[in-house]
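Supplementary Text 2. Reproducibility record for the structural model of the 141-residue chain.

All settings were left at their defaults, and a single model was retained for analysis rather than an ensemble. We include the record here because the model underlies the residue-level annotations in Supplementary Table 4.
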Amino acid sequence: MIRAGVLSFVWALCSILSQAQSKASCTFTFFDLGINIPNLGPGLLAPAGINDWGTIVGIAVPNNKQSFGVGFVRWENGGFSFPLGTASQSGLAGRNNNGVSVGMDLSTPILLTGSTVTDITLNGVPSPPKAPMASTNGAAS
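Retained model, structure tokens:
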């Protein structure tokens, strides 16, 4: 009898606590993943990270199979930028609310703060040297 009373009390308490939670307020905005990448032509976006301000980072991949992906930032207002340029392979994987992005430039892990690129050092080990890019004929350039 006491056991049934305790179980009823716990059940009622759980019901009250579950009512105290509120639903999350989310807004989703869809955008076209097709883009014209400066100096590389048409391509597709591969978003990788988003911050609380709605700024999205990732890799823009050209349709041209001989080209390489480049890091992009899609601002909350819909504008795009390519802060690491479009001359070499790069990508951005995440961005915090202070505008600092993490990613890679060629084979080197980086932090991007504004237009300042800083190589990442992990456990006192410096980043590997930037690997040469392969040309379209397979030779290193």
